[in-house]
UniProtKB/TrEMBL annotation:
Biological classification of the source: Bacteria, Bacillati, Actinomycetota, Actinomycetes, Micrococcales
Domain SGNH residues, every copy: 517-741
UniProt keyword terms in alphabetical order: Acyltransferase, Membrane, Transferase, Transmembrane, Transmembrane helix
GO molecular function list: acyltransferase activity, transferring groups other than amino-acyl groups
Keyword hit for DNA-binding: no
GO CC annotations, alphabetized: membrane
Parts of the chain that traverse the membrane: 47-68, 89-108, 162-181, 188-207, 227-243, 250-270, 276-296, 317-336, 342-359, 394-413
Entry superkingdom: Bacteria
Name of the protein this chain belongs to: Acyltransferase family protein
Length: 754
C-alpha cells in the first residue's frame, strides 16, 4: 500500500528537518535582540553582528538538511528543497514588502515612495544587497534618507547562498562517490572542500573590506564564509556527538560570552566583515557545536539564557520580527520624530507575533506548493526542480509579473519626476536675484577699480533673518517650490544641474570619472569674459554654484569649477564615502593648486564639508581636529598669492533630510533642526587654520544664513533650502544669492547682477 503524494512529501519534509534545538531557537532571539537594540537605541554598538549569527545558523541548518537528503535512500529533490525555502521565507517577506510600499505612498511624497518601490522589487527577487551596495557607494546618495527595506540585504545574501549551495554540495558528494569514499571519508572530503571555500571567501572579504568596504558589507562573496562556517559544523556533526558534557557547558558559555563581547566592542568604525566578523562567527560556532548531538535536558538547563520560554518565543518569531522592525522604525521616525523608541519596539513585536501566528506558521504547515507527483515520477525528477500545482504557479507568476511591472512603473515615475522638477535649476539660474533694501548692518569696504569706486551692495542679512524667523514660526507648510514631497532618491532632481547633468563632481554622474579631466567642460560664462572666479572644493562648493551663476554677470565673469566628490581641499588623507581608498584626491588637489596658480583668478572661492569618518587615519575628537586644522592650514599656505582674492564659505549646518521629515502628515517643526553641537567650534577652527595659512583669506561664517538662535528651518520663503541632509537644493542656493553677492562684494562690486 502506497501513501498519497502529499503524505509522502510531508514525510520527506519531516525527515529533512534537523532535530529540534531549543538552544538555536534561543540563539535566534539573542541575534534579533542585538539587531533591534542597535537600530532602536544605537546600543549595543556592535548589535549589527546579530546578522552574522543568523548567517552561521542558516549555514548549519541548511547544510544539515542537504547532506541528510543527498545521502538518504530517496535522494534529494531540488524542487522539494526550494519549495521549502519559498514556503518558509516568501509569505512573510511579501507581506512586509507590500505593507511597506503601501505605507510609503501614504506617508511620503511620490519621489521617495517610488524609490522605496524600487527597493521592494529588488528585495522581492532577493537582490536587495546589491541594490543597497550600489546606493551606499554612490556619492549622490550620501545624504539620502535610509530605506525602510535596507535590512532585506541579509535575505539576499542567504537566498543567493541557498541557490548555489546545493549544487556545490552535490558536486563534493559526487566527487566522493568517484573516489569511492566511505561515509566518513565523504565527510572528511566535504570538510576539506568547505574549509577551502571558507578560506578563499574570507581572504576575499579581507581584500574587499579594505578596497570596497561598503560593498563588502552587503556582498554575498564577502559573507559566504560565515554561512560556510555553519556548514562545516553540519558536516562534522557525527563527531561532535562525542563531545563530553563538561566541554559542552564550557564551550557554550564561552560562545555566549564571546557574542556579548562582540556586541560590546564592535562599532561602526570596525573593519567589517573582514576580519572582525570572525568574533561573532567563532562565538556562534562554539555555541552550536556545544549543543550538537542531542545533549538532553541537562544541557538545556545549563544554557538557560537561550532555552528559557521567553528566549525561545522571541527566537520562534525572530524572522518576522527582523522583517517588521526596520520599516516600523523608519515610519515611526518620520511620523513621530520626538517619540521614544519603546512604542516602535512594541509595534514591531505585535506585528511579528501576528505575522508568525497567522501567516508564516500556517503557510509553512499548509499544502501550498506541496508536490503532486508519484514516487516513480520522483525518480525521473532527481536533481530537477519539481513542478508546483497549477494555482501556485499562476499565483507566483502573477506576483512576479506584478512586482516587475511595479518596478518599471517606479523607474517611469522617477524619470518623470526628474523631468518635471524643479522649475528649477536650469530656469532659476537665469533669474536675477534682487538685492534687499539697505539695512543697518555694516557693509564691507567697497572695492576700488581704476577710475571709480562702486559702492558694495548693502547687507541683505536682516531681511533674510526675518524670513528665517517667519519659517520657524510657521505652523503649516507654505506652497514650496520645488516640493520636497517630489524629491527623488537622494534629492537628485533638486540638486544643481551642474552636478547632475554636467557631472562637475567627477562622480558617478560625471562625463569623465577622472576629476581632473572632468573640469574641462565645467567652465561657465562668456569665453571672452575678462574676469575669472575659481570655485574649488567638494560637493558643498558645488551646491553653492547656482548662487554664483545667479549673481555674477556671465558676460564679464567666467566661473571655473574645480570640484571632486568627497575630496576636501584640506591636505588630509581620506577615503571615499563608502570607505574605499581615494588615490585620486591628492592628485586632484595638486592639479588644482597648480592650475589656480597658472590661471591667477581674480577670486578663488572655496567650500567643503568636514566628513570626519573619511579620514584614513581613523582619528576622532581632538586628534581629528588637529589633523583637519593642520591640513587646512597647509592648503592655504600652498594657495597663498595664487589668486588675487581668496574667500572661504563655511559649510551649511547638517539638516534633516526633507524626503524623510516632510511627510503628508508633518509640520515645518518636524523638519526644523537644532544647530549641531560643536558646529561653532569647528567653524572657528577652520577659520583659524585658513587665516594661519594665508592671512589674506576671508573666511565667511554662513551659520546665520541658515539658523536663528540655534534653530534652523528647512525652508525660507517658499523655497526648500536643502536637497538632502548635507547639500543645498539648487533653488535654495539661488535664494541665498543676495548673501553670496554681499560676501563677494569686496571683490565683485559693480559686477553683481541685481
Amino acid at each position: 500500500m502506497s501513501l498519497p503524494p502529499s503524505t509522502r512529501a510531508q514525510a520527506r519534509q519531516q525527515r529533512s528537518a534537523p532535530a529540534f534545538r531549543y538552544d538555536i531557537e534561543g540563539l535566534r532571539a539573542v541575534a534579533v535582540a542585538a539587531v533591534l537594540g542597535n537600530h532602536l537605541y544605537a546600543w549595543p554598538a556592535g548589535g549589527y553582528a546579530g546578522v552574522d549569527v543568523f548567517f552561521v545558523i542558516s549555514g548549519f541548518l541548511i547544510t544539515t538538511i542537504l547532506v541528510r537528503d543527498i545521502t538518504s535512500p530517496e535522494r534529494l529533490s531540488l524542487g522539494d528543497f526550494y519549495r521549502r525555502r519559498i514556503r518558509r521565507l516568501v509569505p512573510a517577506a511579501v507581506a512586509v514588502l507590500a505593507t511597506t510600499v503601501t505605507a510609503a505612498f501614504v506617508v511620503f511624497g511620490p519621489g521617495r515612495a517610488a524609490a522605496i518601490l524600487e527597493d521592494a522589487v529588488w528585495s522581492f527577487f532577493f537582490l536587495g544587497n546589491w541594490r543597497f551596495a550600489a546606493s551606499g557607494t554612490d556619492y549622490l546618495n550620501a545624504g539620502a534618507a535610509v530605506s525602510p527595506l535596507q535590512h532585506f540585504w541579509s535575505l539576499g545574501v542567504e537566498e543567493q547562498f541557498y541557490l548555489a549551495w546545493p549544487w556545490l554540495l552535490m558536486s563534493g558528494i559526487a566527487l566522493a562517490a568517484v573516489l569511492r569514499c566511505t561515509d566518513r571519508g565523504m565527510r572528511v572530503l566535504l570538510l576539506a572542500l568547505i574549509a577551502g571555500f571558507c578560506a578563499l571567501t574570507f581572504v576575499f572579504a579581507l581584500w574587499e573590506t579594505v578596497h570596497r568596504p561598503t560593498t563588502a558589507y552587503f556582498s554575498t562573496l564577502s559573507r559566504a564564509w560565515e554561512l560556510g562556517a555553519g556548514a562545516m559544523l553540519a558536516v562534522a556533526a557525527p563527531w561532535l556527538v562525542r563531545l563530553p558534557g563538561l566541554f559542552r557547558a564550557v564551550a557554550g558559555w564561552i560562545g555566549l560570552c564571546g557574542l556579548a563581547l562582540s556586541f560590546a566592542v564592535l562599532s561602526s568604525q570596525s573593519t567589517f566583515p573582514g576580519p572582525w566578523a570572525l568574533l561573532p562567527v567563532a562565538s556562534t560556532v562554539l555555541l552550536i557545536a556545544a549543543g550538537t548531538g542531542v545533549p538532553g535536558h541537562g544541557y538545556n538547563r545549563i544554557m538557560w539564557p537561550l532555552t528559557n520560554p521567553a528566549s525561545r518565543y522571541v527566537g520562534r518569531i525572530s524572522y518576522s520580527l527582523y522583517l517588521w522592525h526596520f520599516p516600523v522604525i523608519v515610519f515611526f521616525t518620520a511620523l513621530f520624530p520626538e517619540s521614544p523608541a519603546l512604542p516602535a519596539l512594541l509595534v514591531s513585536l505585535l506585528l511579528a507575533s501576528l505575522s508568525f501566528h497567522f501567516l508564516e506558521d500556517p503557510v509553512r504547515h499548509s499544502r501550498w506548493l506541496m508536490p503532486r507527483y508519484t514516487a516513480r515520477e520522483r525518480g525521473r525528477r532527481y536533481f530537477q526542480p519539481a513542478t508546483a500545482p497549477r494555482p501556485a504557479r499562476l499565483a507566483a507568476m502573477a506576483a512576479a509579473t506584478g512586482l516587475l511591472a511595479s518596478g518599471l512603473a517606479a523607474v517611469a515615475i522617477d524619470t518623470a519626476l526628474q523631468d518635471s522638477l524643479p522649475p528649477a535649476a536650469a530656469e532659476t539660474l537665469q533669474r536675477p536675484v534682487p538685492i534687499p533694501a539697505p539695512s543697518s548692518v555694516e557693509s564691507p569696504v567697497p572695492a576700488e577699480t581704476p577710475g571709480e569706486t562702486v559702492p558694495a551692495p548693502q547687507d541683505p542679512l536682516t531681511a533674510h533673518t526675518a524670513a528665517l524667523r517667519a519659517a520657524l514660526q510657521s505652523p503649516e507648510w507654505p506652497a514650496l517650490s520645488p516640493d520636497p514631497a517630489s524629491f527623488t532618491e537622494g534629492g537628485r532632481n533638486a540638486k544643481p544641474v551642474e552636478w547632475i547633468q554636467d557631472g562637475c563632481l567627477g562622480s558617478n554622474e560625471a562625463r569623465n570619472p577622472d576629476p581632473v579631466a572632468n573640469t574641462a567642460h565645467c567652465v561657465y560664462g562668456d569665453p571672452g569674459a575678462s574676469r575669472d572666479l575659481v570655485l574649488y572644493g567638494d560637493s558643498v562648493a558645488m551646491a553653492y554654484l547656482p548662487a554664483l551663476r545667479a549673481v555674477l554677470d556671465p558676460g564679464q565673469w567666467r566661473i571655473h569649477v574645480y570640484t571632486a566628490a568627497g575630496c576636501t581641499p584640506a591636505e588630509v588623507a581620506q577615503t571615499r564615502i563608502g570607505g574605499a581608498p581615494y588615490p585620486e584626491c591628492p592628485v586632484f588637489r595638486d592639479w588644482a593648486v597648480q592650475r589656480i596658480g597658472e590661471l591667477s583668478p581674480e577670486v578663488l572661492l572655496m567650500a567643503s564639508f568636514r566628513y570626519e569618518p573619511a579620514l584614513s587615519s581613523g582619528a576622532t575628537g581632538k586628534a581629528a581636529d588637529a589633523e583637519w586644522e593642520s591640513g587646512t592650514q597647509r592648503i592655504h599656505e600652498r594657495l597663498a598669492s595664487k589668486a588675487q582674492r581668496t574667500l572661504v564659505l563655511g559649510a551649511p549646518p547638517e539638516a534633516k533630510d526633507p524626503a524623510q521629515c516632510a511627510t503628508r502628515f508633518s509640520s515645518p517643526k518636524d523638519c526644523e533642526q537644532a544647530l549641531p553641537e560643536g558646529h561653532g567650534d569647528r567653524a572657528a577652527l577652520e577659520a583659524r587654520a585658513a587665516t594661519a595659512g594665508n592671512p589674506d583669506v576671508r573666511w565667511i561664517d554662513t551659520t546665520a544664513w541658515f539658523c536663528v538662535d540655534g534653530r534652523c528651518p528647512s525652508f525660507v520663503g517658499s523655497t526648500p533650502l536643502y536637497a538632502d541632509a548635507y547639500h543645498l537644493s539648487a533653488a535654495g542656493a539661488v535664494s541665498l544669492g543676495p548673501l553670496v553677492a554681499h560676501a563677494l562684494s569686496g571683490e565683485t562690486a559693480g559686477e553683481v547682477r541685481g
